[in-house]
């Protein structure tokens, strides 16, 4: 195949590889660095295709480099903001049993165990959960781009009718607390999953305790790119 017949993406492959080499080292990267590298890779591919359409081979190579740079900046901005939230919540929940993690779709997830959240069969917040939510609400009221999803879960004890309602009531209790602390209700979604999404074996007490949980997700709705 002659050079002129090669696709824009193929001609830009060396540039894409140069921009995206950092992706191979993701295991040793911080969350912020991962976002930068991933943004660079996506931006390089997009830039190569667009540049090739407009300017042929040279345009594809230039587009890959420019797209990679733009993607790196975008990924870095996203990750930096959410990484700051993640670190703050890890500090605030240290020793509570709350698990703080970044999800694959770039949301901040708090998994709150039953022993600090709700008593068995009840939907009113324990004082220990209020302390976690106080920390979570700080800064949210002043940043309308941050939205929250709260998902309640139960173990398999009882009927679906009871568990589905109880799990939603627990999620709603979290929402109401956040609203009382300055977070607009329109920015919070709630859902109840009952016992349908267990993370442990309901045949044991320890497993049932793990399944009685609340998951809180924070996402940034700021347009990227």
Attribute tags:
225 residues; alpha+beta; 60s Ribosomal Protein L30, Chain: A; 5-stranded mixed sheet
What does this structure look like?
It contains 7 helices and 5 strands; from the N terminus they run αααββααβαβαβ. The chain has 225 residues and is an alpha+beta fold. It folds into 2 domains: 72 residues, no CATH class; 128 residues, 60s Ribosomal Protein L30, Chain: A, CATH 3.30.1330. It has a 5-stranded mixed beta sheet. The longest helix has 62 residues. The chain is globular, with a radius of gyration of 23 Å. It starts with 7 loop residues before the first helix and ends in a 5-residue tail after the last strand.
Give a quick precis of the structure.
The chain has 225 residues and is α+β, with helices and mostly antiparallel strands. The protein has helices at residues 8-11, 13-20, 31-92, 114-117, 127-137, 160-180, 205-211; strands spanning 99-102, 108-113, 146-152, 188-192, 213-220. Helices cover 52% and strands 13% of the residues.
């Amino acid at each position: 195949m002659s050079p002129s017949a090669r696709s824009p993406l193929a001609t830009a492959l060396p540039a894409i590889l140069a921009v995206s080499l950092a992706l191979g080292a993701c295991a040793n990267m911080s969350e912020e660095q991962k976002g930068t590298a991933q943004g660079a890779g996506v931006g390089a591919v997009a830039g190569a295709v667009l540049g090739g359409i407009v300017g042929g081979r040279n345009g594809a190579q230039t587009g890959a480099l420019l797209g990679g740079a733009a993607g790196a900046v975008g990924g870095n901005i996203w990750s930096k903001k959410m990484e700051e939230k993640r670190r703050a919540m890890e500090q605030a929940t240290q020793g509570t049993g709350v698990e703080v993690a970044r999800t694959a779709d770039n949301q901040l997830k708090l998994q709150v165990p039953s022993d600090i959240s709700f008593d068995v069969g009840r939907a009113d917040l324990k004082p220990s959960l209020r302390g976690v939510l106080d920390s979570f609400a700080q800064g949210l009221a002043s940043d309308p781009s941050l939205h929250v999803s709260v998902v309640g879960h139960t173990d398999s004890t009882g009927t679906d009718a009871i568990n589905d309602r109880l799990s939603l009531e627990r999620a709603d209790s979290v929402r109401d607390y956040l609203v009382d602390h300055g977070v607009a209700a329109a920015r919070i979604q709630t859902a109840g999953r009952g016992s349908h999404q267990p993370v442990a074996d309901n045949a044991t007490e320890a497993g049932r305790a793990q399944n009685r949980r609340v998951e809180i997700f924070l996402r940034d709705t700021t347009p990227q790119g």
